[in-house]
Design a protein that fits this description.
heterodimer; A: 130 residues; 4-stranded parallel beta sheet; B: 209 residues; mainly alpha
Chain lengths: 130, 209
């Protein structure tokens, strides 16, 4: 029985892989997580191809939640979703790190894609300082 | 004779020439209100598109445009890749099965390109983006039933220049607020080169539209 897969899209390869590392540790292998950061050459920017490959790598019928950082990352993510034409792939409108973390934790608990997405998107309204 | 596959190839090459020529200017515009990479990115994308399309044999106009669009998406980077790429992909779909493009189909294509840009970037008019060139041009095309190259070029140029006074509400430039006023939007400038190139090819090749 699989869980919702997570794709982390960032303009920076280091940010995406760093977040993947951080979050992987939190869920101890229970969730498929892929990083899609930087351009094809590893420069700052995002790559449609990297995103498409990442989504395909973590996809299952539980679906995939994509998290992104800024501007054109969203455009490439939306394009990736359209071109892949896979079912159950959604993009969270959430802060990358905090949203990514919460999404992975929820996914590891077997929650559905809408539940994982909602949890990630709620993060924006929660204070980080008590 | 209407627009053929050969004309489209000429269009791509002419657009690329202009963009390569103006690469530093486009970068300067983006340095003023963006992150300074538009000229570099878009010229790389167009150069790659020329390379790809000159070494491939296409059965149809639609296939040619699809490759052009997808190359821009993969090679431009930034926001311009998905935006220009989507416009060309939409045009490619609109022109599926067509061997020649007449005025009505050209006009419909500009509108489809505009729709693609709006869907992809979620911008409206007067936000200082490439929509501010594509929208007036699309309206102009719909108001006529044949192609007037000079008028078309004027509409494109004026639309681009009108972005100078606008305040950016989209993209990186939006963070500058009022400080974005007084500079032409880079994506609008590239759109100006792209669409002017189209008009020039139509004129020079004597395409009847």
């Amino acid at each position: 029985m699989s869980n919702v897969g997570i794709v982390i899209v960032s303009h920076s390869d280091l940010i995406a892989s760093g977040l993947k590392e951080l979050v992987t540790q939190a869920v101890r292998g229970g969730v498929r997580i892929e990083a899609a950061g930087g351009t094809e050459n590893g420069d700052i920017g995002t790559s449609l191809d990297k995103i498409m490959e990442a989504v395909q790598a973590v996809h299952s019928d539980k679906g995939v939640l994509i998290l992104f950082d800024l501007g054109s990352a969203l455009m490439n993510a939306e394009m990736a979703v359209e071109l892949l034409g896979l079912e159950h792939v959604e993009i969270a409108d959430a802060p990358l790190i905090e949203g990514g973390y919460v999404a992975a934790v929820e996914a590891s608990m077997g929650k559905t894609l809408p539940e994982v997405r909602e949890a990630a998107e709620k993060v924006r309204n929660e204070k980080k300082r008590g | 004779m209407a627009l053929t596959k050969e004309h489209i190839l000429l269009w791509l090459n002419r657009a690329n020439e202009k963009i390569q020529e103006q690469k530093s200017y486009l970068t300067d515009l983006d340095q003023a209100i963006g992150d300074g990479d538009h000229g570099i990115n878009i010229s790389r994308g167009f150069a790659e598109a020329v390379k790809k399309t000159s070494s491939t044999d296409y059965d149809t106009i639609s296939d040619l445009l699809k490759d052009w669009g997808m190359t821009l998406v993969s090679k431009v980077g930034g926001a311009s890749g998905p935006l220009f790429g989507t416009a060309l992909l939409k045009i490619s779909m609109k022109w599926k099965g067509l061997e020649e493009i007449d005025y009505i189909n050209l006009s419909a294509a500009i509108e489809e390109g505009l729709n693609g840009i709006v869907q992809r970037g979620h911008a409206g008019e007067n936000q200082k983006t490439m929509v501010d060139v594509w929208a007036p041009v699309s309206r102009f095309m719909k108001e006529h039933d044949s192609f007037h190259a000079d008028d078309f070029k004027t509409v494109v140029k004026e639309a681009m220049e009108a972005t100078k006074a606008m305040k950016a509400e989209k993209g990186r430039a939006a963070y500058l607020n009022d400080r974005s006023i007084g500079f032409i939007d880079p994506g609008s400038a590239t759109s100006y080169y792209l669409l002017t190139a189209l008009a020039e090819v139509i004129e020079e090749e004597g395409v009847s539209l």
